[in-house]
Amino acid sequence: MALQIIRDLCTACGDCESVCPTDSITPFKGTYKIDAATCTECDDADPQCLDVCMEDDCIVPA
Q1: Cα–Cα dist 21/18, whole Å
Q2: Which helix (H) or strand (E) holds 48?
């Protein structure tokens, strides 16, 4: 399963992009998006993007 970013909650800080081990997070129309085809949710570890995101409910399961 992959994660997704809720665009209305994303502040475009970019913190999540730099910690993604699969480079699945990229800029998209002024915020960020997660590529579901490559996101592994950090292979059953705590997803790195969730650890650094400061907005509640911004990154959720797809």
Answers
A1: 8
A2: helix 48-52
**pTM reported for the whole predicted model:** 0.92
Condensed to tens digits (0 to 9), the pLDDT of residues 6-58 reads: 999 999 999 999 999 999 999 999 999 999 999 999 997 899 999 999 999 99
CB 59 within 8 A of CB 16: yes
Q: What contacts 34, CB < 8 A, 6 or more positions away? A: 2, 3, 4, 5, 20, 24, 25, 49, 59, 62
- Which one-letter amino acid corresponds to residue 37? A
Neighbours of 62 (CB within 10 A): 11
Tell me the CB-side half-sphere exposure of residue 25, using CA atoms within 13 A.
Answer: 27
